[in-house]
UniProtKB/TrEMBL annotation:
Family matches, as InterPro entries: FPF1
Membership in a protein family: Belongs to the FPF1 family.
Top-level taxon in the UniProt lineage: Eukaryota
Protein name: Flowering-promoting factor 1
Gene Ontology biological-process annotations: regulation of flower development
Amino acid sequence: MSGVWVFKNGVIRLVENPNQSGTDTHGRKKVMVYLPTGEVVSSYSTLEQILESLGWERYFGGGDTDLLQFHKRSSIDLISLPRDFTKFNSVYMYDIVVKNPNYFHVRDSH
């Protein structure tokens, strides 16, 4: 995995291939699939509906207007996503997969 570490508002994160959003290190575009339906997540409105059905809620306490954030009352986990869906890449996808095992999968797009 390659990219640039960005420190903003007290949070450090890896921005993978900042000039190629949604791609991995070999230039292949990635997609995230919601496993129960086989649906490719293609927008934040779709993703937000799915996350809400899994118990996630929008979190507005972060103060960073560049991010969409979700939290679960039953955990300390926080999902932070760029507000612009075109910047939604595999780093963010894998974060969602790890925090929601058995519900999502990241794969190469066809």
